[in-house]
Amino acid sequence: MSSEQQTSLQEKQFMHKIKAEEKIEPKDWMPEKYRKNLIRQISQHAHSEVIGMQPEGNFLTRAPSLRRKAILLSKIQDEAGHGLYLYSAAETLGISRDEMIEALQSGRAKYASIFNYPALTWADMGAIGWLVDGAAIVNQVSLQRTSYGPYARGMIRICKEESFHQRQGYDIMLTLVNGSPEQKAMAQDSLNRFYWPALMMFGPHDSESAHSAKSMEWKIKRETNDDLRQKFIDQTASQIEFLGLEHPDKELKWNEERGHYDSGEIDWDEFHNVIAGNGHCNRQRLEHHIKAHEEGAWVREALVAYNAKKQAKQTEAA
Amino acid sequence: MQDNALELFEVFIRSKRGLDHKHVGSLHSEDHEQALEYARDVYTRRSEGVSIWVVRSADICASQEDDAEDFFDPNDDKPYRHATYYTLPDAVNNM
Questions:
Q1: Which residues does UniProt call coiled coil (chain A) (predicted)?
Q2: Each residue of A62-84: pLDDT tens digit?
């Protein structure tokens, strides 16, 4: 059998597994593009978890009570953990942690654009948990059925841990809307600023999405950007209503026939602009990541030095 | 008496693609390759698995049950890490 014939046979077997809803595991043969596509998506997901700690970390010393501070700290810890799960899942595809971090810091790899928006007030901690984590959860619940085993298992773990993130965010919003008029206004302002960027988290329309078709065929993605976005729009509408806040989308209207809300169009220029690096915080986020990484270099060096010393001692003793 | 016991290996089996490898037991073997074959013969006679991992038992570093209290304690007093800690009104409670 020629190597070409062999590849086409392997590809056939691979597609057979995908169609039969079987998971692909690290040591299985997979098309190079499937591997690359996964590395791109999983590492981007990991970077988002890690960069996502910054807007919230900024509010740790300004939390209004010890209780809120402990909760926020816990949530941020979770994000770090989720970053780790995802980096590890990506590493099973044959890329190193260093390569991924280099790709992030040099701007070759992306992270969720939402984190390029500034967190200005305490209400933003509410809106981020409720809307940003809420949107992420809609996406991640769907990804629990992704075709790559380690990614799917990571998603299951993450979804389980993350359910509190959204609830603590909504809890902050509830407290604010039941507070003073100023607090309620703060909640409204935060909703207004985060609603549209949260919708953008689902990515471009299906017709515009560069990676979607192949990702759906390979079952890396299980639902399209627009379908997931619709789910989020539908579930969020009643949550906004319950808070007694004004919906930021003036065109939002229940469509009886579709059984879904119709909604206004997203400002796609803003979306592309932020992805291109021109959001409020793009530079700040990366600079901070690089700074933290460089300032932490001595820890990594110390670990290696300690390890070398320990091994030398063991050799000596032997 | 000469000690002829072979090294101990721990066996992990993935019962179905997509699931985690799960610890099923251990066996003695002279090396990794043999351990894999023994594990196949001992633990998967009824198609219990699609993939096997074997790990030298001596290479496993485990936490101590006796120290469990001190070891895990810092995480026990953080009920706010659980979704159920936040009581939301019924209208939005499916979050």
A1: none
A2: 999 999 999 999 999 999 999 99
Q: Rounded CA gap, A277 and A132, in Å?
A: 20
Per the CB < 8 A criterion, the answer to whether B56 and B29 are in contact is: no
Task: List CB contacts (< 8 A) between A164 and chain B.
Answer: 80-83, 85-86
pLDDT digits (tens, 9 = 90+) for A125-169: 999 999 999 999 999 999 999 999 999 999 999 999 988 999 999
Selecting from B17, B78, B95 the residue whose C-beta is nearest the C-beta of A25 gives B17
Interface residues of A toward B, Cβ cutoff 8 Å, are: 17, 22-25, 67, 70-71, 74, 78, 134, 149, 152-153, 163-164, 166-168, 170-171, 174, 238-239, 242
With contacts defined as CB-CB under 8 Å, which chain B residues touch A153?
18, 20
The interface pTM score, or ipTM, of the predicted complex is 0.76
A243 exposure class (CB count in 10 Å sphere: 0-12, 13-18, 19+)? buried
CB contact under 8 A, A167 and B86: yes
Question: Mapping DSSP to helix (H, G, I), strand (E, B) and coil, where does residue B23 land?
Answer: strand
